[in-house]
Amino acid sequence: MMLTWWTRAFARAFCTYFRLQFTDGFVLVTVVVQPLVYALMIAFMLRGLPSTVAAISAVTAGILMSMWVAALYRGTVTINYERQAGTLELLVAAPLPFIIPVLANVTASLTLASSSVVLSYGTVSLASGGFVHIANPLAFLLTFALGLTTFIATGLWLGMLTVLNPEIRSLANGFELLGYLIGAFAVPVTLLPAPVRLASYVFPPYWVSVGLRDAATNDRFQAFAPIWLAIIALSACYATLSLWMLRAVLRQTRQEGTLHAV
Amino acid sequence: MPCSEVNRVPRDRAPAFIGSSQHLRRGAWNELAVAIRTSWLSYLALFTWLTPSRYIATKIMWPIEQIIFFSLVGVYGSTQPASFFVIGNAVHSMALTAVFGVSLAVSGERSAGTLMYIFGTPTSRVTIFSARTLMYLADALTGVVIAFLFAILAYHLDFSRVNMFFLVTALAITAFSISGIGLLIGSVSLLTANVMFFNNAVYALMLLVCGVNIPLENLPSALRVVAAATPLTHGLQAIRTIFEGAPAGTVLPLLTIEAFVGTVYAGLGYVIFRWLERLALAGATLELY
Asked: Residues of chain B whose pLDDT is less than 70?
């Protein structure tokens, strides 16, 4: 009964937030237009490489950039958006877990970002004059589906982080390209300096990047097992951390009455 | 005190006949003073909402990360040296202020509800428009200095053949030219609330077509046509030639085209602003675009 109620609330919130995005030019340009332009640019920039490597790197970069931007910007503004609109108190007081509308918001944004799979693939295929070859399409799609969950978990974590420390929200612009770098979205991780590589290994989008790129050349499913395991484990870690942080936020706001001014 | 003394007006406050040379001179000084004051205030107004961390993220972290990311991609996948990407992205970082700052300064009037006062002011629209850009030009140049300092430290960017006078002139003209497109977006944003859509789209498109990361000759012909009509393209070409130690004869024509392109965009912005002003006054729809 309770589960049905929560599911309905999630579905309603998801639909509302999903439609809301189409009225926001910033979301449309950063999640849809900009990653496409970057994917196209990367396709041109990597022309010195074998065409298959260049094309799949550009497609992967377009998808990951779109999803990272969606997770980053929606994650960091989701709770503060409610605060500015004056609806945060109502959401906290509603008889359902607070995480549900927040989760719906982040998921809606990442659903829009999922369009980048088709858009990036189509644009890069057009630019390179033929379909981009993917040796293992099923592994590609499975990695992407797992990637969706990991980006949602990362977005939630960023959301909680920004509520606990509003200064982090101010730095969101600086995290966009940092995510591209640490996630090795367009270049192999081996090109990054060793300390940065360590950060990559605990950054969930990095594993999605590896999985998507490998799917272009590797048709053996066994090869993807460690990658998928890493994605699932890191997603679980980030989701658990987010829930723990959310409890801390709610406890703090209820005790101190600072819901509007955390 | 005799009446004649009481009624005497100091010479500098005496009224000047309209159209007289004294009136015109004083009018010009007033316009300049208004321009400087407006410029400073609009710059402050934009940055009052910025915390230092947001300024650092936008003006320092972003350009540096952009240089690192695209240099990495470029060196990995193309035949160009790292300096090609470093110079391109450092100069392109001026667009952060010259496009976003300038357009938001104009569109901000609408969101702040002060547009009606702008339309009601007797100050020339040219003064208002040019004033908007002044401080942003200075800020854009500061941004590119930070980017170049990083490039020297991290990439050992070679300045040995650079004529500093040419470089500063080229950067100033390029910043002016980019701010022309910022003014145009600012004016168009009076028609729509989604100014950030245009800002981000233009920022990304400039990165694609202006020769920042892809040599112009490698672009498809359609994009090369777009590049020729976009601010930054010729300015960046000029700056690249300055780094190669080119003489004035090579640099000047490119800078002239760059200045012309920027002027066209700024002029378009001005025309659109005036057109919207007339529409708004005729239909009493000042806040209803």
From this structure: 1-26, 42, 45-51, 285-289
How far apart CA A108 and CA A14 sit, in angstroms, is 6
What is the DSSP-derived secondary structure letter of residue B213? S
The region, left, alpha or beta by phi > 0 then psi within -120 to 50, assigned to residue B204 is alpha
What is the Rg, in whole angstroms, of the alpha carbon atoms belonging to chain B? 22
How far apart are the C-alpha atoms of B254 and B238, rounded to whole Å?
A: 6
The answer to whether B167 and B248 have CB atoms below 8 angstroms apart is: no
Q: pTM of the predicted model, to two decimals?
A: 0.85
Instruction: Give every CB contact of residue B198 below 8 A, 6+ residues apart in sequence.
Output: A25, B103, B185, B188, B189
pLDDT tens, residue by residue, B72-95: 999 998 778 999 999 999 999 999
Separation CA B209–CA A35 (nearest Å): 15
A174/chain B closest Cα distance in angstroms = 4
Collect all residues from A whose CB is shorter than 8 A from any CB in B.
24-26, 28-30, 33-34, 37-38, 40-42, 44-49, 54, 57, 167, 170-178, 180-181, 186-188, 191-192
User: What ipTM was reported for this prediction?
Assistant: 0.89
Q: From B74, which residue of chain A is nearest by alpha-carbon distance?
A: A45
Q: Which residues of B touch A (CB under 8 A)?
A: 51, 53-54, 56-58, 61-62, 65-66, 68-70, 72-74, 76-79, 192-198, 200-201, 204-205, 207-208, 213-214, 218-219
Q: How far is B141 from chain A (nearest CA, A)?
A: 20
Q: Which residue has the tokens 């209820």?
A: A254
Nearest CA in chain B to A180: B69
A106 is written with which tokens? 């982040």
